[in-house]
Amino acid sequence: MKTCPEDCDASCYRCLRSFKNKFEHGLLDRHVGAELVEYLLTGDLPAFDLRRIVGSTELLHQDLERQTDSGITFTSNEVVTVPELGDVTIPILATHLDGRRFAVALTGPLTTEHPADPTIVALCETWDGIEVIPVNELLVRGNLPAATRLVQDRLLN
Questions:
Q1: Are residues 55 and 96 in contact, defined by beta-carbon separation less than 8 angstroms?
Q2: Which of 49, 105, 118, 130 has its Cβ near the most Cβ atoms within 10 Å?
Q3: pLDDT confidence of residue 30
């Protein structure tokens, strides 16, 4: 699952798909499967594929910019100085006209409330200057409109 010869995004006939599981093709994701097997074998939550997290973050950022028109600006990879941590790179920084800021950060599929980036986890634990909105990477890949709505709801409430 980790080394698919086609380097597919979620699954293909070289790694997980077959004629027998054709009705489940939309549910198969080799990255999630590899993470789950590694967790079951070792008991440790593995680091999720950084390249995939970055790609999904960009998808979400583009959709947020396209779908949100309520006086909120979005920037990618914004560096913010955080007391006790120093400079932290926020994957998606949402800023209201009134100055409130939110960090939108993706989570791995097995850790839905725990950002994949350890510096964002440290930000959550040590500073309340920016609220962190965690978004499951699987939701972004599987249902981008729902992921965008989730972020919009948190930003507007």
A1: no
A2: 105
A3: 87
- Topology of 50-156 in CATH? Trna Endonuclease; Chain: A, domain 1 (3.40.1350)
- 71 conformational bin, left if phi > 0, alpha if psi -120 to 50, beta if neither: left
Looking at the predicted structure, is the pLDDT value of residue 51 above 90? Answer: no
* CB neighbour list of residue 84: distance below 8 Å, 6 or more residues apart: 126, 127
Tell whether the model's pLDDT for residue 70 goes beyond 80: no
Q: What is this structure's pTM?
A: 0.82
Sheet holding 72-82, edge to edge: 72-82, 86-96, 101-107, 131-136
Residue 38 above 90 pLDDT? no
CATH 3.40.1350 domain extents, the chain: 50-156
Let me know the angle formed at the C-alpha of 58 by 113 and 85, rounded to the nearest 5 degrees: 55
pLDDT tens column, 136-147: 998 998 899 999
Phi first, then psi: give them for residue 66, nearest 5 degrees.
-75, -35
CA distances (Å), 111 to each of 11, 69, 115, in order? 21, 30, 8
Residue 19, Cβ neighbours under 10 Å: how many?
6
C-alpha angle 67-64-55 in degrees, rounded to nearest 5: 135
